Model the fold of this input.
Amino acid sequence: MHFKTIAECAALPTDSPISLHPLPRWQTHPPPSSRLWPPDLSHWLFDAGSLTQRLLQRCPGQFRVQVLRQGWTRPDHDEAAALGLRRDAWAWTREVRLCCDEQPWVFARTVIPARTLRGRGRRLTRLGTRPLGAALFTDPGIRRGPLEVARIAAGQSLHQRAVAGCADPSAARWGRRSLFWLDGSPLLVCEIFLSNLPASPACC
Done:
């Protein structure tokens, strides 16, 4: 996907084509004990705390955020629906990998509508290599919506973004997403768990 500047977005017609790749089927409030997903991923999928903090606890070496791309894009249809956006709307999109000792553990995609970037939200475009979770979970003005879980299959555009350059690129991956609300304005955070991620701990 090509990420654009604000000027490039303004120059495009509003009826520009939108990707028709198949989309994941997100499940709201799925039971953590379901046999639909691998049991070694269940605690990663359903833990409501800061994923960044959990990764830091599990990483025995150097943890870093690898910024893959960021800029203005048109969200996928399901992302636009979750955010209450028109299908031709533009949003600030950031894609990163969360890595331990240069091994990618998680692919994260954040979609932020323009209205959320007003006021205090402007800082979300200037994170650099700092993790988004550090900004979200330390801000008392942030609240989080329910988790949604999905199997991300090969051929879906989200799968292609997540596994590009990784081992076993044809294998399906599991992911989760949720809305966060900054002073009443939404942003959508999606996290896809990659093959190098350690199994969930035996207990919480």
Observations:
- The beta strands are 27-28, 63-73, 91-100, 103-113, 142-144, 148-152, 173-182, 185-193.
- The helical segments are 6-11, 42-46, 51-58, 77-83, 132-136, 157-163.
- Residues 51-58 form the longest helix (8 residues).
- Residues 5-20 have pLDDT under 50 and may be disordered.
